[in-house]
Amino acid sequence: MNFINSPRIIQGGMGVGVSSWKLARAVSLRGFLGVVSGTALAVILARRLQMGDPEGHLQRAARQFPFAGVAERVFQRYFIPGGKPKDQPFRLITMPSQSPARAWRN
């Protein structure tokens, strides 16, 4: 194996809520390997929607999602304009299963 051209620094994916694209980009721009993890992505998405998506990033991404019906159902279920009250708990996500509910198949 040739290690001469291998990156000296590899920033490992630490979970999408911990190691953001900004950190991975900074590492990559210096010629090394930056990684973003998808661990707990569904939980982070649901929570950010319930916090109101203040920067609008998720709304912009949803407009580009190839399955508009799925994106719309996720927003209907979790999005709270202006965000949930601080003392209100987050709504839990639907856990994946081998037989997903009909609404999540299309």
Terminal residue distance: 44 Å
Mean pLDDT: 85
Spatial shape: globular
Order of strands, main sheet, comes to 1-2
Which residues form runs of ≥5 with pLDDT under 50? none
| % residues in beta strands | under 5%
- For the report, how would you describe the main beta sheet? 2 strands, parallel
Q: How large, in whole angstroms, is the Cα Rg?
A: 18 Å
Give your account of this protein's structure:
This protein is mostly helical. It is built from four helices and two strands. The protein has helices spanning about 20-30, 40-50, 55-65, 70-80; strands at about 10, 35. A two-stranded parallel sheet has the order 1-2.
Give me some keywords for this one.
106 residues, mainly alpha, two-stranded parallel ribbon
Summarize the structure.
The chain is 36% helix and 4% strand.
